[in-house]
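FORM 12-B: Structure-to-Sequence Request
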């Protein structure tokens, strides 16, 4: 999730196990330890743009890295806190702060190498958006109350409520997915692959992408007291052997395309109107749109070059209004 949520989750966990006299220090320690895992964003290369994509939420988010991550936080904080806390308590609070960094990221749709090195596969549960104000505010309120009152019970309640919110989001995801399965059946489609993920900042409006006969179908589902489907667009799945059969399979370009396909779980299509750009169809500014949020640009004239990685985050007023209308359960007009 976003770095603020990572920090406040770590603060809440550390605060929840703290002795009364340690509550305030434990909160700060957990806050610092909670964001350490996202230091992997510093792993990048100007020569290889996909390196940062591959290593974000990688080994630092593995459950097996927790003792090491906590140790890094401990070493960073020890010079400042060595006269304020016993060693055992400092490490305990660091460990609690770091504990769920990988887990909460696996609850999003981006993907997390939660079981690396045993399994080098990104795990995505698609339960919650990368930014969800409700989840974050619950934790912030809890740690502020605990910090002021010197009572870890507030953060325990906050963690319980945040956990209940995740269960609610899981319930919402299942409702949305069932609606899409019914829609696909009405269309006469056999679903070969499907992802249903929350749109930014909420658990009401969900983006769905499913694959059927080499075509991705994109729809949105609003799940409130009742359910409403907003039928979207479709786009062909990218197939390198058919689209670019002339490419040298041993070239750098082909290797980068394959890396991007692995990262995107093969939810890859060509950018509409730009055949040299491949996009991750899972993400779009428009819940029912086919314009990707990010993608790679290929130099088809020189297959020895690395691809470029680009973001396409600009959203028109029409797209913004469509998102608001769907979120508020309104009818869309062309």
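FORM 12-B RESPONSE
SEQUENCE OUT:
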């Amino acid at each position: 999730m976003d770095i603020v949520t990572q920090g406040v989750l770590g603060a809440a966990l550390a605060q929840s196990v703290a002795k009364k006299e340690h509550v305030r220090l434990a909160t700060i320690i957990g806050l610092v330890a909670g964001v350490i895992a996202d230091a992997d964003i510093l792993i990048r290369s100007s020569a290889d743009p996909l390196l940062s994509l591959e290593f974000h939420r990688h080994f630092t988010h593995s459950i097996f890295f927790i003792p090491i991550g906590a140790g890094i936080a401990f070493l960073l904080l020890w010079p400042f806190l060595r006269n304020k806390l016993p060693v055992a308590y400092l490490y305990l609070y660091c460990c609690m702060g770091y504990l769920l960094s990988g887990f909460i990221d696996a609850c999003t749709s981006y993907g997390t190498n939660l079981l690396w090195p045993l399994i080098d596969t990104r795990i995505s549960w698609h339960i919650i958006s990368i930014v969800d104000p409700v989840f974050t505010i619950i934790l912030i309120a809890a740690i502020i109350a605990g910090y002021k009152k010197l009572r870890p019970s507030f953060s325990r309640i906050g963690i319980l409520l945040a956990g209940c919110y995740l269960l609610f989001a899981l319930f919402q995801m299942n409702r949305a997915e069932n609606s899409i399965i019914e829609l696909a059946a009405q269309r006469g489609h056999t679903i070969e692959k499907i992802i249903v993920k929350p749109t930014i900042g909420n658990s009401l409006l969900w983006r769905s992408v499913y694959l059927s006969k080499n075509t991705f179908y994109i729809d949105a589902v609003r799940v409130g007291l009742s359910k409403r489907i907003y039928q979207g667009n479709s786009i062909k799945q990218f197939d390198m052997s058919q689209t670019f059969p002339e490419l040298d399979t041993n070239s750098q370009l082909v290797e980068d395309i394959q890396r991007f396909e692995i990262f995107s779980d093969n939810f890859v299509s060509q950018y509409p109107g730009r055949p040299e750009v491949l996009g991750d169809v899972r993400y779009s500014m428009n819940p029912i749109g086919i314009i990707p949020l990010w993608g790679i640009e290929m130099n088809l004239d020189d297959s020895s070059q690395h691809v470029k990685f680009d973001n396409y985050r600009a959203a028109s007023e029409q797209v913004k209004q469509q998102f608001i209308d769907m979120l508020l359960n309104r009818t869309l007009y062309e």
